[in-house]
Amino acid sequence: MIFLRHINFFLCIVFLCSFNVNSQATNNDYVVVIDPGHGGKDPGNRGNGYYEKNIVLNIALNVGSDLTKNNKNLKVIYTRKDDRFIDLYKRAQIANNANADLFISIHCDAHNSNAYGAGTFVLGLHANERNFKIAQKENSVIFLEEDYEEKYDGFDPNNPESVISLVLMQEEYLDQSIIAADYIQDFLVKDLNRKDRKVKQAGFVVLRNTYMPSVLVETGFLTNKIEGKYLNSSKGQKEIAKSISNGIVKYLSTIDAKKLNYNSIINTTKGTFKGDNNYIFKIQISASSKLLPLKSYNFKGLNNLSTINSNGLIKYYYGNTKSYKEAKKLLNKAIKAGFKSSFISVFKDGGLYDLKKYLSEFE
Predict the structure, then answer these.
(1) 220-234: per-residue pLDDT in tens?
(2) What is d(CA 258, CA 261) in angstroms, rounded to the nearest whole number?
(3) What element of type H or E holds 238?
(4) What is the DSSP-derived secondary structure letter of residue 318?
(5) Which of 21, 63, 261, 331 could connect to 338 by a Cys-Cys bridge, CB 3.0–4.6 Å?
(6) Predicted confidence (pLDDT) per residue in 111-163, tens digit
(7) 3-state SS class at 36
(8) What is the DSSP string of 17-36?
């Protein structure tokens, strides 16, 4: 009951945060928080004698280096830069205090089979027993923390029903989290020819209280001899970091391509963007389980507002245009108004369309 009483409180906090100007934002820079899993007294998994905590720290530091090397407008913050233990809730606090635009938690997987491959996760209900086991493994670290029952409001990593309340807290950012995860997964698979373990949903505590799009990356299996050796190598860690950073930048460039030097990292040549008048672009500025009147005073002076009810989640949109170029201008206006997590959505024939697919078709 203690756990359930806190759900509405957290929902209200999340909702209110989305409608407040980010007073700590500096010069509209993007902030990415990179979270190397485990650390200190928590070694992570020890597949084939390796230390997950050391491997993910090296990958995380390489990701940050790749990001900042090519983008002066992008700030990277780490939850840890050395071998120390950080409570899971403090990792979320670091991201929230930084007003981060994206939170990435990096891990290595383990299994009692010869499983291999890379996968990315966003917060959600477990689709199957395997996803639950992965989340259970990562969540079990809370048992190493003092007063964990009080800190996590009675959350039980071994109880699948505990995950339902976790999902409610991240509902506002689910769409964006999936988009970011999809880009990261694409680069891991296509750049490195890794086995594609797909983008999945599972109940990770570390993603629970972050008030921004959040993704957990399982970079591979230390328990697989070949993959474990690759993950433990400097070459493997740098290659994985490059793919993750490429995915991060690709995601952020869809929010505002002017701010980030996307081509400098990914080494692709963009063609002339032509677009197609059969598509409609809107800016998703927020989402909540509560319905607000579409009045400009409720949305920091923005007009031309609309909503879509998606399985009980109300998505709020600003603007309506057939021009992708104009949509980017609307996006900048929404961000300046205080909706820092806004992003472009594209519709075709009245239904939501995949923006990544649209850009690939008309780029």
Answers:
(1) 999 999 999 999 999
(2) 8
(3) helix 234-255
(4) E
(5) 21
(6) 989 999 999 988 764 444 444 454 455 555 545 556 655 554 555 555 544 44
(7) strand
(8) HHTS--TT--TT-EEEEEEE
pTM: 0.61
Higher pLDDT, 211 or 273: 211
Question: By three-state DSSP, how is residue 170 classified?
Answer: coil
In the sheet that holds 102-109, the strands lie side by side as: 74-78, 30-36, 102-109, 214-221, 118-123, 196-202
Residue-wise DSSP of 51-103: -HHHHHHHHHHHHHHHHHHH-TTEEEEES-SSS----HHHHHHHHHHTT-SEE
- The string of pLDDT tens digits covering residues 169-188 is 445 677 788 889 999 999 99
Is the Cβ–Cβ distance between 346 and 281 less than 8 Å?
A: yes
Distance CA 50, CA 48 (A): 6
CA distance 305 to 295: 8
Cα–Cα nearest to 183, from 354, 361, 363, 362: 354
- The CATH number covering residue 301 comes to 3.30.70.1070
The tally of domains found in the chain comes to 2
CA 268-271-275 angle, to 5 degrees, is: 130
Which residue in 73, 94, 76 sits closest to 28, CA to CA?
73
Residue 57, exposed/middle/buried by CB under 10 A (0-12, 13-18, 19+)?
buried
Whole-angstrom distance, CA of residue 337 vs CA of residue 299: 9
Contact 117, 194 (CB under 8 A): yes
Contacts of residue 352, defined as CB under 8 A and 6 or more positions apart, other chains included, come to 308, 345, 346
Are 66 and 245 in contact, with CB atoms under 8 Å apart?
yes
Please tell me whether residues 31 and 149 are part of one structural domain. Answer: yes
Residues facing 36 on adjacent strands? 106
Domain boundary among 236, 265, 294: 265
Which domain range does residue 314 map to?
Answer: 271-362
Token output for 281: 């672009």
**And the tokens for 65?**
């280096």
- 360: part of which helix (H) or strand (E)? helix 355-362
